Amino acid sequence: MKIYHDFVKNVPLRRLCVLIFCILIIWLMRQIMSTVLLTFVFTFLSVNFIRQIQHHVKLSPFWIITPLYLIIIGLIYLLATHYIPNIIDSTFSLLKKVFNFYDSNKVQSDPVIAFLVESAKNLKLDDQIKTGITEIWRYVTSIGAVGFTIVISFLLSYFYSFEVDWMNQFGRAFEDSKVSWLFEDIHFFAKKFVNTFGVVLEAQVIIAVVNTILTAIALTILKFSSVPSLAMMVFFLSMIPVAGVIISLIPLSIIGYTVGGLQTMIYVWIAILAIHALETYVLNPKLMSSRTHLPIFVTFVVLLISEQLLGTWGLIVGIPIFTFFLDVLGVQTTNK
């Protein structure tokens, strides 16, 4: 018992063991990681919305969150029945137009196209495209499972949100149990997790929305077709810090050349560069403060490692998880 009491009193060692225990539990839950992460994101945003409303009007969480979720369900139904079929049709139309353009005799002798083809061969982009198509096909064929995951996460976040006060009270009750130290440490890490991972992920969503809106406006001005399809692509890629901008620039450049030649492609580069500058110098400092002032090299290394460990999700949550560990270790980063 003396060893046990000494262990409980040794707070740094105790918290290290609790952190390892939590990581092990999360690793064992990796098969349902999509549900866990989506539930956390939906719940974090919902609870923040509730607190913002309660700051102005004293209402029960149930009466705040229920109308919001009903509105979201209505919008999803509207998208599924009216807009998504049109977006799918316009996407296939755009792809057909691009393929026909690059198969034409005029394009075959174009020096710009020759340069792109040669670059693609050197970078082995054909293999990467095949891999990408395979991944897309896998997601499409598992659309039922993806839909089920989203629905379950949506429901769980709703149940947690309208009982958020009761859930907080229920959680605090464990801190008075016989192993109170364990739940105190779990609460310590959970609080840091919300204040770093949650805040950073929320900022990524806001930045992605702003990037998508500005990019859609720029593409509309440049007379691109199928702007909603391209906007969806930009939104998902914008969730990937730094690398998402580079990845999205490739298909937008190709389509821009299809629309108006080299001049339009350059306009696309200028527009993306301006939007990225806005994100870097205005949105990031304002929304993320000093939490994610990471060198670009470190950002790419974290993305590469997290993608290997967590798959596609790693590209989105890799940086927030890394900032969480920096916060736990007490590492202060500054932007120079």
UniProtKB/TrEMBL annotation:
UniProtKB keywords: Membrane, Transmembrane, Transmembrane helix
Membrane topology: Multi-pass membrane protein
Listed InterPro entries: AI-2E-like
Pfam family, one: AI-2E_transport
Subcellular localization, as worded in the UniProt entry: Membrane
One cellular component (GO) term of this entry: membrane
GO biological processes: transmembrane transport
Residues spanning the membrane: 12-29, 36-54, 60-80, 139-160, 203-222, 234-260, 266-284, 296-326
Main subcellular localisation: membrane
Recorded family membership: Belongs to the autoinducer-2 exporter (AI-2E) (TC 2.A.86) family.
Protein name per UniProt: AI-2E family transporter
Origin species: Bombilactobacillus bombi
Lineage: Bacteria, Bacillati, Bacillota, Bacilli, Lactobacillales
